[in-house]
Amino acid sequence: MSAKPTLDDVAAVAGVSAKTVSNVLLDRPHVAAATRERVHAAVKTVGYQVNRAGRGLASGRSGRIAVVVPNLYQPYFAEIAERLILALAAAGFTSTLRVALDARAERDAVRGATTADADGVIICPHHLSADLLGARTPDRPVVQVGGGPTGLVDVVVMGERDGFEAVTRHLLDSGRRRLALVWNATASGRPEGSRYEGFVAAHRSRGLEPDPGLMVAGSDWDRRVSGYEAMTGLLRTGAQFDAVVGINDAVAVGAMRALRSHGLRVPEDVAVTGFDDTDEAGFTVPPLTSVSPEQELMVTAAVQMLMERLDGLDSAAREHRTGAHLVPRASSGAARSRV
Question: Is the torsion defined by CA of 49, 53, 54, 56 positive or negative?
Fold first, then answer.
C-alpha cells in the first residue's frame, strides 16, 4: 500500500471497484447499504482522507468558499478573514475574499450576484437582516459570523453583551465613575445594540446611569481616525470623564492618541478599553485592555456549520453562541486617588 492511501487502496480492502468507492464518497444513489458500510469501514482502515475540493469538482462544485467582510482596515476583520481562510484550507477548500462596503454589497454577496463562483458564503456583516434579504433564504449555504440573527441563515453569535458588560464593570470596580462611550455612528444617532445594552447593564448593576453627554461617535465606521475625531470633539466640550470605553480596539486606539495629544495620561488620568482583542491591542502604549470574542471558537463553529450544509443538512437556520472574556492590560490601571 502506498504512503498516502488512495481510492484504489480503499477499493482493495472493501472488495469493490474504485468507481464504487467514489460513488459512495460522493453519496450517489443506487449503492447497496452493505456496500456503503464496507467502503466506509475500509476508509477508516486505510486512513484515506477525503479531499473535499476534489469531491466538489466531481459533483459539479467549485471547491471554493467566499469569505465576505465589510472592510480590511479594521484589524478585527482582517484577522478573522485570515482565520477563516486558513480553516477552510484545512478542510480542503480554497477561498475567495470579498469586501462588502455597504448593505447592497452584503446582499449581493449572500444572494450570489458577486460570489457566483463559490459553493457557499461565510460573511461577517455590518448590515445583514431579514429585510435586506427580502425575507428569503439564500439558495446556497451561508453562515453569518457576528451581528444579529436574521432567521434565514446559520449564524455564530459572539458574546457582545456579556463582553461589554464585563469590561464596563471592570472600569467601575476600579473606581472610575464617569465613563465616556466612543461609538460608531448609527442611523438613529444614538448608541444601540448588544454592546450598548451591556454598557448600560453594568452601570445599573452598580446603581448608576451612564451619562448621555459622554456618548460620542466619529463620522465613519471602525477607523482609528473615528476614535480620534470623536474623542477630540468630546475633549473640546470640557466634559469631565475618567475612562473611555471604545466600541472596538481601532476606535479605542484613536481615542488614546487624542487623549495624549491633549496632555492626558493613560491610565493615570483616563483609563481606556477596547473590544475584539486584536493583535494591535497588545502593542499600544500602554497595552490596551480589551475583550476577546474568542475568534478561534467562532471560526471553528462557522466552518463546521458550513460543512454540514454542504454535506446536505436541511434544517431551519441555526444559532451557535460563543462567549467573550475580559483581557485586562495596563490601559485600564487603577483610578487615581481622590481627595
Answer: positive
- As a whole number of angstroms, the distance between CA 132 and CA 280 comes to 33
Say if CB 114 and CB 108 are below 8 A apart. yes
Query: 311: closest CA among 117, 106, 113, 93?
Result: 93
Domains of the chain: 7-50 (1.10.260.40), 64-157+294-321 (3.40.50.2300), 160-292 (3.40.50.2300)
Q: How far is CA 241 from CA 121, 269, 272, 333, in A?
A: 43, 9, 11, 15
Three-class DSSP category at 97: strand
CA pair distance 211, 330, nearest whole angstrom: 25
Burial class (CB in 10 A: 0-12, 13-18, 19+), 151: middle
User: Within 10 Å of residue 279's Cβ, how many Cβ atoms?
Assistant: 10
In the structure grid, which three cell numbers stand for residue 297, read together?
Answer: 471558537
Please list, in sequence order, all residues whose beta carbon lies within 8 angstroms of the beta carbon of residue 160, skipping any fewer than 6 positions away: 193, 194, 195, 198, 275, 293, 324
Mean pLDDT by 10 residues, the chain (339 residues): 72 87 73 89 85 54 91 92 96 94 95 93 94 92 94 95 97 97 84 94 97 92 90 97 96 97 97 96 96 95 94 92 96 57
- Residue-wise pLDDT tens digits, 11-54: 899 999 877 887 787 666 678 888 989 989 998 998 887 655 55
Rounded to two decimals, the pTM is 0.78
Compute the distance between CA of residue 12 and CA of residue 38 in angstroms, rounded to an integer.
11
